[in-house]
Design a protein that fits this description.
The chain is built from one helix and 22 strands. The chain is mostly beta strands. The strands form six sheets. The chain has a five-stranded antiparallel β-sheet with strand order 1-14-13-12-11, with no helix packed on it. The protein has a four-stranded antiparallel β-sheet with strand order 7-8-9-10, with no helix packed on it. A four-stranded antiparallel β-sheet has the order 15-16-17-18. The N terminus is likely disordered.
Length: about 300
């Protein structure tokens, strides 16, 4: 396992980019959100209070703004809006937003690679919160040649409100018998890589401080396990990944992978699990299961509270 540790030059002195955090500050990480509504929503012709970005619309390629109907029975007739640039880069997968209303997304192939060429799978796109225009933020390096048994690139994106940094997990170059993935920490303004954790194929990403230490949690794309790696205040990696919990033998399938990880206001870990085996799957086959875990202070471990 490799990790890069960067340092800052402050007032002519070489100091660690991370500094001491208060207990209250750490406890709020992952729970205190900062996401802002983009300005363009107010001119899209949809109800701003019920609108959300989606990449799961079966018949609309790319990013879509969807108005959630007040009556669930009207979901089939829900209103949608799309900026012209949102469908120019193929099917999209992960989405995350920041405190300025900007959104970040990345390509994920659907059924085939016709609209998602392999040389475009490792690009992070940024959607301006003001204009709605989507542009390339970062074309991440490929750590190894594209492998025929892995059609994917970026699988996870997460904006850390605490440090103001963007995390992106890529499996580009990984093979069934080789884990070559990387989790990158990016500057959301420039797309510059500021740190990275190598040798991990990750799906869902989320920062949290429930355990008393700032950590990046991620779901493995190769097993049902959820891992955590310590971070400093600036968001850089300071430790090695440790297993936090597992979805093994849970849910209807028993081997779900953690596609999405978030924390609620009580500090419970909310996980969306899906079947994932590095093969292209039709949208109708992507069934998700929700899981909830709670940290036990006495045992210093996570436990499943959805039996």
């Amino acid at each position: 396992m490799k990790k890069n540790i960067a340092y800052c030059l402050v007032a002519g002195l070489l100091l660690s980019c991370g500094s001491k955090m208060t207990d209250e500050e750490i406890a709020s990480i992952g729970i205190k959100t900062c996401q802002a509504q983009p300005a363009y929503v107010r001119t899209a012709g949809l109800n701003p209070s019920r609108s959300a970005l989606s990449t799961s619309e079966k018949k609309i390629m790319g990013l879509v703004l969807v108005e959630i109907p007040a009556n669930p029975a009207d979901m089939a007739n829900r209103k949608t809006w799309q900026h012209p640039s949102w469908k120019a880069f193929g099917w999209m997968g992960p989405i995350t937003t920041d405190d300025k209303g900007n959104a970040y997304t990345a390509p994920v192939p659907l059924i085939n690679l016709l609209n998602n060429p392999t040389d475009k799978q490792n690009i992070v796109y940024k959607v301006s919160g003001n204009t709605g225009e989507m542009q390339v933020l970062a074309d991440l390096p490929r750590e190894a040649p594209v492998m025929p048994d892995n059609p994917y690139g970026i699988l996870g994106l997460y904006y850390d409100c605490h440090a103001g940094k963007l995390y992106a997990s890529s499996v580009a170059g990984s093979a069934r018998d080789k884990e070559r993935g990387v989790i990158y920490m990016l500057d959301p303004e420039t797309g510059k890589i500021e740190d990275k954790l190598e040798g991990v194929d990750a799906l869902g990403l989320c920062t949290g401080g429930v355990t008393g230490t700032k950590k990046l949690y991620y779901g493995s794309s190769r097993s049902p396990d959820i891992y955590a790696v310590e971070l400093d205040k600036s968001g850089r990696f300071t430790g090695s990944p440790q297993k936090a919990y597992s979805l093994d033998m849970l849910g209807p399938r028993g081997d779900d992978k953690a596609r999405r990880i978030r924390f609620d206001r009580n500090g419970d870990m909310l996980v969306s699990g899906v079947e994932f085996n590095f093969n292209l799957t039709a949208p109708t086959e992507k069934q998700e299961t929700s899981y909830r875990f709670r940290y036990d202070e006495e045992t210093k471990s996570w436990r499943n509270i959805m039996q």
